[in-house]
Amino acid sequence: MLAETVLTPSDLIWPLFIAAGEDGEEPIATLPGVSRYPVRNLPAKAREARALGIPCVALFPNTPPGLRSSGAAEALNPDNLICRAVKAVKDAAPDIGVLTDVALDPYTAHGHDGLTDEAGYVLNDATVEMLAEQALVQAAAGADIVAPSDMMDGRVAAIRSALEQAGHANVQIMAYAAKYASAFYGPFRDAVGSRGLLKGDKKSYQMDPANAAEALREVALDIAEGADHVIVKPGLPYLDIIRRVKERFEVPVFAYQVSGEYAMIEAAAAAGAGDRDALLLETLIAFKRAGCAGILTYHAPVAARLLGKS
Asked: Is 135 in contact with 148 (CB distance < 8 Å)?
């Protein structure tokens, strides 16, 4: 009765990894309990989300190696894996929100979030032009929210302008506004097939974990350019950033409880170091307490079931 913070299934966004084949699900070794799903399995996942009270799913494709290239052309294919996945979810459960990732790393042969020059340096402006086209392709497929995760400068303004001009004014932008160059992303890169491809690191465009004031500047820019919501990523190590963003800007702030955070909870539970259900619920309530409007978490269906029981 006196709890100051409340967590419900409607606070959760469920990330789903998409496999290119038509066979069954593909378990991800570094993310125990998480799999890649072929497109034909997505309608069942969408209906499961609806039954659990989860309002939105986030889709991430594992693009086959043969379709990855230095120019990331597959990102603009209107029949690519992510577009087929969006259509499958919306056909099965039109009332479930679909969030899509706007970045080139699932499509590049080198694993970076953008186009690169001959020296391997990511080209900001050329990448932004392509990201705007990518967002249009995803919006045309039926995405409700596009989420630029690339951290290029100026991409939110370019995407907003492109959406407006193409008649997609109601498609929302959830910007990864404060995305840190983190050690917690490893299992995600396994899931989307980019870990072995990455040349170098992403420190030239993702944020330094030592910086907080910079996060506020990045968020301010994305809001000014037209972002409807912002994401702080990773989650638990950056609760201070979530709080500062919420207090400064009073916009919906989302946390991404990333793959490494998920894997640590699962590993702790497997080692007998703690109760998995208690650990994950305490973590999720911490995000809400810090000021989050919602949380992207691979634990979404587990948490929703626990919350339903309580």
From this structure: yes
Encode burial over 83-107: b for 16+ CB neighbours within 10 A, e otherwise.
bbbbbbbbeebeebbbbbbbbbbbb
pLDDT digits (tens, 9 = 90+) for 200-229: 789 999 999 999 999 999 999 999 999 999
Q: Is 256 a member of any domain?
A: no
CATH number at residue 28: 3.20.20.70
pLDDT digits (tens, 9 = 90+) for 248-296: 999 999 999 999 999 999 999 999 999 999 999 999 999 999 999 999 9
Domain extent for 157: 9-229
Does the residue 177 lie in any domain? yes
The amino acid occupying position 244 is R
Q: Which residues are identified as catalytic? A: 179, 233
pTM of the model: 0.95
273: in domain: no
Beta pairing partners, 173? 146
Any bridge partners for residue 233, and if so which?
Answer: 179
Q: How many domains does the chain have?
A: 1
- Which candidate, 9, 7, 34, places its Cα nearest to that of 261? 34
* Angle at the Cα of 96 from the Cα atoms of 3 and 278, rounded to 5 degrees: 35
Q: Return d(Cα 185, Cα 18) in angstroms, integer.
A: 18
CA 252, CA 245: separation in Å to the nearest integer?
9
In order, the DSSP letters of 264-305 are HHHHHHHTTSS-HHHHHHHHHHHHHHHT-SEEEETTHHHHHH
Task: Report residue 145: phi and psi, to 5°.
Answer: -135, 130
Q: Give the closest residue to 209 by CA, choosing from 233, 227, 225, 188.
A: 233
- What is the C-alpha end-to-end distance of the chain, expressed in Å? 14
